[in-house]
Design goal:
Blueprint (H helix, E strand, L loop, with lengths): L9 E6 L10 E5 L6 E10 L2 E5 L14 E9 L3 H15 L3
Antiparallel strand pairs: 1-5, 2-3, 2-5, 3-4
Amino acid sequence: MSPTYHFGDYAIIQEAGNDQVETGDVVLMKGNKEFPLVLHRAVSAEKACVITQGDANHTPDPEGCQEIIGISRARIPIIGIPLYFINRGFQQMFGGL
């Protein structure tokens, strides 16, 4: 989501469904096995169908309508870096448990 969000930024997410998203909102959605959660911008929000795109991407996400988990309401710079490394350490020590 660069340039809006950077590695280490912490997003404050308000739980929301597809019907609560407006075009322009930064949303948290289900991703894939490699990236289970994805933060992208809603480029189209009509009824229950939300089309998303990363700010650094030139085209919308190819999956079409997304299942939204929540809407980003605030960003706290840098604070996520220690959390990332703590989580990563636990994954290495305990095999991803």
